[in-house]
Predict the structure.
Amino acid sequence: MPQPDLAQITDSLTRIAAALERLTPPAPPPLDFRGAEAFLWHAETNRLSPVPVVARVDLELLVGIDRQATVLLDNTRRFATGLPANNALLWGARGMGKSSLVKAVHAAVNAETSGGLALVEIQRDDIASLPVLLGVLRAQSRKTLILADDLSFDSEDTSYKSLKAVLDGGIEGRPPNVLFYATSNRRHLISRDMMENERATAINPGEAIEEKVSLSDRFGLWLGFHGCDQATFFAMVETYGSHFGLAVDPEELHAGAVEWSMIRGARSGRVAWQYIQDLAGRLGKTLPAS
């Protein structure tokens, strides 16, 4: 029987190892948690990635939500300076600036604290991974806001339990450097159909929905956002128009805003911004992304 050629075997193994290395994705670089203002959480790989430029508008441009802005700004400032602060639920009408306010407040407080406050966004579908994210953030010294945008739960969805554990603190407790902000169109975060299904199928309907309905009660701060009237809508477009230097007669600006809102069937901060984008495009002006 011929003896194996050791040199040939070694060469084959070397080539196989090199091929496997090429197929293996490179390890992500170590996280520099002070290298960016904001980060995205990737639950599938349990890692944070920096956001080079955050899409947001300045706090002074958010018209019609003055009380909500004052309360959230004060709460965030306390947290950033090491004082007690509450997790916050921003709920209510679509397009009225809930997530925009969180990002604007973060930018304002971050500027005041020389970059001491980070913002981490977690997707709705990744809520079940919150305990893992908290473990990552617990090892960091930087104060961090976690934002869950457009949060709600439907029938058969059990990921709310992870959020509940975070808000309650659990046995380990919420890290002192982390605060949780959520936005939702629903005050109680769950759908009416979900409530009705629980009542219809449970032996004790009241107790059956208690756990789900009480989820929103675990937020120490509730801020409601409601649809705006025409005067507030005009103030929104006027503020945007003035800030971005859109030279339009006020009557023409208002008439265009009314027509735009009628086409959209709504008045809100989002609709006002969309009208301003259209107007700026027709005037040949560029606007920042948001």
